[in-house]
């Protein structure tokens, strides 16, 4: 029995690995949300620790830079009493040419039960899962998916916009570099799964291709089970920011990377900011109580104005804090599997 309430063997159907949120059932999502609530109350206690992962080893292996995701996984694993090993690729044998598969096998041989992996290549966690006997948690792979971020964003939004109907029918704008964003891709699944109407907005070069996804979703052909497709919220795609913001209940800004200008996808960062930065003035187009999110890291002044970051509408700090509770929930659910 976990201190958080459930017998560890009572969670049939929970997957061995957490690779993506696409295809995750609503029952599973609800279980994560419920458990994250329990974990948030554990974290509020003076001794914020549960014995759930006692004697288990969690290895955190990041091939890309990260502050909040890495640290919140570490805090979450430690709060569940796990033994935590952090590997920085810069100081590991990866610099000597060791492959991902060899690294994963080495980590397994050293006795790891859970491997939290971030990699710049889409699909890397799937490859790792074929060679690792324990559980893999995808902490972000290429442009593909960032499941734990999407679940913490969902948790944060539900706390603020939840109400009776949950997120059903709410208008949620994801703004910026959609094309290169694993955060946007994963959020589309979880937010439309919760019944929200998601609007993807950015310059035409950075939303290219998403119209097709929106169309596929409208006709119920977006690689999601048909039963679940009918309950999904809609997906819209536009370059018209004013239109997207009108009456929005939430706006999630994404980081704009300098490399995008170098790659010729933007005329200049200054022009991007003039047209797409979320300013206090633009936010007035949204619902008067609209909330603002950003997964971080932020370029204040480029994609988001500093006064929006510090305004009382901003949930950016809360997202970081909720990340610990949601990751504790996920680690505890996974470790309950054989
Ligand atoms: C994001 C990521 O790394 O995917 N950040 C995060 O995990 N909090 C977004 C980004 O890098 O822009």
How are the secondary structure elements laid out?
Blueprint lengths: L25 H18 L13 E6 L5 H12 L3 E6 L11 H10 L4 E6 L4 H6 L5 E7 L5 H15 L9 E5 L6 H12 L3 E5 L2 H4 L2 H9 L7 H4 L5 E4 L2 H5 L4 E4 L5 H4 L6 H8 L3 H4 L7 E3 L12 H4 L6 H20 L3
Parallel strand pairs: 1-2, 1-3, 3-4, 5-6, 5-8, 6-7, 8-9
Helix pairs in contact: 1-15, 2-15, 5-6, 5-15
The structure holds N-carbamoyl-L-aspartate (NCD).
Summary, kept brief:
The protein has 338 residues and is of the alpha/beta class.
Query: In CATH, what is the class of the largest domain?
Result: Alpha Beta
Sheet-strand content, in percent, reads 5-15%
Taking Cα atoms only, what radius of gyration do you get, to the nearest Å? Answer: 20 Å
Question: What's the architecture of the largest domain, going by CATH?
Answer: 3-Layer(aba) Sandwich
Annotated CATH topology of the largest domain: Rossmann fold
In terms of structural class, how would the helical and strand content be classed? alpha/beta
Describe the structure in your own words.
- This protein is α/β, with parallel strands linked by helices.
- The chain has two domains: 2-146 and 321-333, 3-Layer(aba) Sandwich (Rossmann fold); 148-316, Rossmann fold, CATH 3.40.50.1370.
- It contains 15 helices and nine strands.
- Strands 7-6-5-8-9 form a five-stranded parallel β-sheet. A four-stranded parallel β-sheet has the order 2-1-3-4.
- Strand 5 (171-175), helix 6 (182-193) and strand 6 form a beta-alpha-beta unit.
- Helix 1 (26-43) packs across helix 15 (316-335) and helix 5 packs across helix 6 (182-193).
- The two termini are 15 Å apart.
- The structure holds N-carbamoyl-L-aspartate.
- N-carbamoyl-L-aspartate (NCD) is lined by residues 68-69, 140, 146, 149, 182-183, 255, 295-296.
């Amino acid at each position: 029995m976990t201190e958080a309430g459930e017998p560890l063997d009572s969670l049939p159907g929970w997957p061995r690995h957490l690779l993506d949120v696409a295809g995750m059932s609503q029952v599973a999502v609800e279980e994560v949300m419920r458990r994250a609530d329990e974990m948030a109350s554990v974290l509020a206690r003076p001794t914020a620790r549960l014995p759930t992962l006692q004697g288990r080893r969690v290895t955190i292996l990041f091939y890309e830079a990260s502050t909040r995701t890495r640290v919140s996984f570490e805090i979450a694993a430690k709060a569940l009493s796990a033994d935590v090993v952090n590997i920085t690729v810069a100081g590991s044998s990866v610099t000597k040419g060791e492959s991902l598969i060899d690294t994963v096998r080495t980590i397994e041989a050293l006795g790891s039960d859970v491997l939290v992996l971030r990699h710049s290549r889409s699909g890397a966690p799937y490859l790792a899962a074929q060679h690792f006997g324990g559980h893999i948690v995808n902490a972000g792979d290429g442009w593909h998916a960032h499941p734990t971020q999407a679940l913490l964003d969902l948790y944060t939004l539900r706390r603020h916009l939840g109400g009776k109907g949950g997120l059903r029918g709410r208008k949620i704008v994801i703004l910026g570099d959609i094309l290169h964003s694993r955060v946007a891709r994963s959020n589309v699944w979880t937010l439309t799964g919760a019944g929200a109407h998601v609007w993807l907005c950015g310059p035409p070069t950075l939303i290219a291709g998403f119209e097709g996804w929106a169309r596929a979703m409208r006709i119920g052909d977006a690689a999601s089970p048909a039963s679940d497709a009918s309950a999904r919220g809609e997906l819209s795609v536009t370059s018209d920011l004013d239109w997207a913001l009108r009456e929005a209940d939430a706006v999630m800004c994404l980081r704009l990377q300098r490399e995008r200008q170098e790659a010729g996808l933007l005329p200049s960062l200054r022009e991007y900011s003039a047209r797409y930065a979320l300013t206090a003035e633009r936010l007035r187009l949204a619902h008067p109580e609209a909330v603002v999110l950003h997964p971080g890291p932020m370029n204040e002044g480029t994609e988001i104005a500093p006064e929006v970051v510090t305004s009382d509408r901003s949930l950016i700090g809360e997202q970081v804090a909720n990340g610990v509770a949601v990751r504790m929930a996920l680690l505890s659910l996974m470790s309950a599997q054989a």
